[in-house]
Design a protein that fits this description.
The protein is of the alpha+beta class and 162 residues long. Helices cover 33% and strands 17% of the residues. A hairpin with a 2-residue loop joins strand 5 and strand 6. It is globular and about 55 Å long.
Length: 162
């Protein structure tokens, strides 16, 4: 299993020696497998796939999460001898924070901004975190940053263990 994060296609794609689009992403089959390699799947920013409407699947975290779940189902299907199904991206809308107590929300026609959108954004971010402890740590960290006007950073320094 490999995971790469960033805003540009990982150079890993070039090392696969498979067809790439002009942005350097892997041209995947509808089930997210690599052409000619049915047991190799690509997801997230590294996958280039057109939706049924002809638009590319966007390089956003919700799409990558959906792709990961789909690949899990496809691996299980392969092991069970079941036919592969194409990936279908479900766009649930867009949320973005644009400043202190300001955000925008676009949920397919339901659009709002300002403080209510910011509160909605906060709630959504907390909701999609995994585990109670993670939710509590993030809420406490955000509250401390909000009230103190200071940003926190986690920097880990140390020597590599060979």
């Amino acid at each position: 299993m490999l995971w790469a994060a960033g805003v540009a296609a990982s150079p890993l794609a070039q090392s696969l020696r498979v067809p790439l689009d002009r942005a350097g992403r892997v041209l995947v089959k509808p089930d997210l497998s690599v052409p000619g390699h049915p047991r190799v799947f690509v997801a997230g920013d590294l996958a280039a796939l057109l939706q049924s409407n002809g638009k590319p699947v966007p390089g956003v975290a919700p799409a990558a999460k959906q792709m990961g779940k789909h690949i899990t189902r496809m691996i299980r299907a392969q092991l069970a001898g079941i036919a592969m199904q194409p990936f279908r991206y479900h766009d649930f809308g867009n949320l973005a924070t644009i400043g202190r107590r300001a955000a925008i929300v676009d949920l397919h026609g339901l659009r709002f901004s300002g403080f209510p959108a910011w509160a909605f954004w906060l709630a959504a971010r907390i909701f999609f975190l995994i585990g109670f402890r993670n939710r509590m740590v993030v809420m406490i960290d955000w509250a401390r940053s909000y009230w103190s006007y200071q940003r926190s950073a986690r920097i880990i320094l140390g020597r590599c263990q060979d």
